Known about the structure:
The chain is an all-alpha fold. The chain has one domain (3-54). The protein is built from 2 helices and no strands.
Amino acid sequence: METGQIMSAIFLIAVLILILPAFLSTNNKIKQFLKNLSIWAIIVLVIIVIINLIY
């Protein structure tokens, strides 16, 4: 693994740690939780694809 990939992974984990408490507290219904989780998964996948295309 390259240093750039490691730094990107650390950045994504740090963002996840920052948003996770508020994300869990506002998504008390399972349907809303799954909808928001899928949106975040798409965002993360797009970021990973863009990072891989650049490097």
